[in-house]
Amino acid sequence: MKKIFYFIVTLGMAITAQAQDTLYFYKDGVMTDKKAVLNVDSVTFSKPKPAVGDPTIDGYTYPTVTIGTQVWFAENLRTTKYSDGTAIPLVTDDTAWAANYNNSTKLPMMCWYNNDQAAYTSNKYGPLYNWYAVNPITNGGKNVCPTGWHVPTDAEWTTLSDYLGGKSVAGGKMKTTDITQWASPNTGATNSSGFSGNPGGYRYRDGSFKYIGSNGYWWSSSEYGANYAWFYYLYYYNSNLGKVNFAKSYGFSVRCL
What we know:
Radius of gyration: 24 Å
Strand order of the largest sheet: 2-3-4
Strand content: 25-35%
Number of strands: 16
Largest sheet: 3 strands, antiparallel
Number of helices: 5
Distance between the termini: 42 Å
Helix content: 10-25%
């Protein structure tokens, strides 16, 4: 049976047909293989894929970490813009934030905890986004993550949890050990996964802020009905990676995958 050969082109590699019935392969002047021409249909060359560097959006480059088969951001998203450069609506007023829940306006919104961008950028907590800001259907088809990255689905979060041994222990492997961020006792925290989860708190549906330094919350892109969506959380007092659904008008942290 004749074969089609595919080759990754690199420096120092050459192919020659010294004899009409044989195909020879050389690397750095040394023959590495040979094939009978009668057994070859064609030779196809392809360039190697370029290495993927750390992702950048809104002028900031994020560290990443490989966990099992997945590559995650190793810190919370902090962008104020979508990948196309348009601004994510910043909402500081409690009444305006609450309107999404009270009036079902479903508007994309982001904020900083206690409306203090300076404090919560430097410690890598990052801003808080409502689900309408991270969902392309409600944000005008935009991506809150850098091009080629996305907000993980519920299934993708589950893949992470399963790889780390299940929800009862995964959380400890995902939490940072930084005692200046997490409240004591920060049970089970090792950050052995490199996820570097920190307790960014959340913005409640009425506009108030809660649980900074105690708990961290991250959206999934998966809905639970018309008004709720799944999210994952880490608590200071156990090693769990929790999962529940809340109203889409809450403000949570975001990780990209």
